[in-house]
Amino acid sequence: MLWPTVICIVAGIIFGVPFTYYWLRWSDKNAVGREKRFVEKPKPKSKNVKVIKLDSHDTGGGQ
To answer: How many Å apart are CA 23 and CA 20, to the nearest integer?
Structure first.
């Protein structure tokens, strides 16, 4: 009758909630570990900027 449905719903809640809790806890630990491993390097602040300008007659063909 209705008992198999009730048993499945209760089993899903009993096993699903702790499983989800530990899964999210494990993924948070991995995220923190990745942040420590892959730290973005600061971009160098260079004041020497070189601008290369091409002549208006230069077609790039070399002939």
So the answer is: 5
